[in-house]
């Protein structure tokens, strides 16, 4: 039975803890056994969401097969030093030096950095914290805008919901892809994402505007991006001219409606290909008649970051 120890830091984000903990707990329910521990430097840990959680003060005996996870804490900006003691840093270093694995969610990467575990390694964190951590740990290599990174038994994730992706990956490595798929299905996870997928989907990246018309058109495209969506039909449904629709949509999102639809198709196709689908099968699944257009779009897109 593998031990998984969550080290709890004051003002931790509940989902940073609960997401990965639920993955391992669900794995237990399905027969893939993990022994879960919750350790802190005080008996009770206040969370960012106001719900206190209990922790034990003593660490269980750990071996090379075991895992320590440091969930993130609330940090619009990072404190000058992470809220962990010298003794906790030593535990993290010693566990890794002994062959064990350590992981972080969101700002938890700051704790790993303070323990010296990021030096000379690749890592990631929440997109709001990348510049601060990059400056704080210049001997480490930050990988921006990916879900998680694995480097020499140091596993870091972007934060919040990506902690679920990280934990599913760890279950897949330990127990097999079928086990991870069963856990994801039991948890009603829409899709198990690879580490090199973007932290923000196209549906989110192009929503930071105030145009009601553009939002309404995006709602239509988001729900039907695999269908043919002629501009005339979109404009008629919105009650505006094609010219007005194109002008407003492009001004709000930086993309034409067609380019936005293509981006959604490309992103979904890349996800399918990353999970073993052929280019031809992925192209058909996202609404292309054949793979030629998908290949053209992929050739124009920036090269994805490959996470080993």
From TrEMBL:
<dbReference type="Pfam" id="PF01965">
    <property type="entry name" value="DJ-1_PfpI"/>
</dbReference>
<dbReference type="Pfam" id="PF12833">
    <property type="entry name" value="HTH_18"/>
</dbReference>
<dbReference type="InterPro" id="IPR018060">
    <property type="entry name" value="HTH_AraC"/>
</dbReference>
<dbReference type="InterPro" id="IPR002818">
    <property type="entry name" value="DJ-1/PfpI"/>
</dbReference>
<keyword id="KW-0805">Transcription regulation</keyword>
<dbReference type="InterPro" id="IPR029062">
    <property type="entry name" value="Class_I_gatase-like"/>
</dbReference>
<dbReference type="GO" id="GO:0003700">
    <property type="term" value="F:DNA-binding transcription factor activity"/>
</dbReference>
<feature type="domain" description="HTH araC/xylS-type">
    <location>
        <begin position="215"/>
        <end position="296"/>
    </location>
</feature>
<keyword id="KW-0804">Transcription</keyword>
<dbReference type="InterPro" id="IPR052158">
    <property type="entry name" value="INH-QAR"/>
</dbReference>
<protein>
    <submittedName>
        <fullName>AraC family transcriptional regulator with amidase-like domain</fullName>
    </submittedName>
</protein>
<dbReference type="GO" id="GO:0043565">
    <property type="term" value="F:sequence-specific DNA binding"/>
</dbReference>
<dbReference type="InterPro" id="IPR009057">
    <property type="entry name" value="Homeodomain-like_sf"/>
</dbReference>
């Amino acid at each position: 039975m593998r031990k998984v120890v969550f080290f709890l830091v004051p003002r931790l984000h509940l989902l940073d803890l609960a997401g990965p903990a639920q993955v391992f707990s669900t794995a237990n329910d399905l027969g893939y056994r993990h022994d879960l521990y919750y350790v802190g430097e005080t008996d009770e840990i206040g969370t960012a969401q106001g719900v206190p959680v209990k922790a034990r003060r003593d660490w269980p005996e750990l071996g090379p097969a075991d895992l320590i996870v440091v969930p993130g804490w609330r940090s619009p900006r990072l404190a000058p030093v992470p809220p962990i003691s010298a003794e906790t840093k030593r535990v993290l270093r010693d566990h890794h030096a002994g062959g064990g694995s350590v992981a972080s969610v969101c700002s938890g990467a700051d704790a790993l950095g303070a323990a010296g575990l990021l030096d000379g390694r690749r890592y990631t964190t929440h997109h709001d914290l990348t510049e601060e951590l990059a400056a704080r740990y210049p001997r480490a290599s930050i990988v921006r805008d990916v879900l998680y990174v694995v480097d020499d038994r140091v596993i870091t994730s972007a934060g919040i919901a990506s902690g679920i992706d990280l934990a599913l990956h760890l279950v897949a490595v330990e127990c097999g892809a079928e086990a991870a798929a069963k856990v994801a299905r039991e948890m009603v996870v829409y899709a198990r994402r690879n580490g090199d997928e973007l932290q923000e989907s196209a549906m989110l990246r192009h929503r930071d505007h105030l145009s009601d018309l553009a939002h309404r058109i995006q709602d239509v495209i988001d729900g039907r991006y695999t269908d043919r969506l002629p501009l005339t039909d979109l404009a008629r449904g919105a009650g505006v001219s094609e010219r007005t629709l194109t002008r407003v949509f492009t001004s709000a999102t930086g993309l034409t409606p067609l380019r936005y639809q293509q981006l959604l198709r490309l992103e979904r196709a890349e996800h399918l290909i990353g999970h073993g689908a052929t280019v031809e099968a992925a192209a058909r699944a996202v609404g292309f008649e054949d793979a030629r257009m998908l290949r053209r779009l992929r050739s124009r897109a920036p090269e994805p970051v490959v996470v080993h």
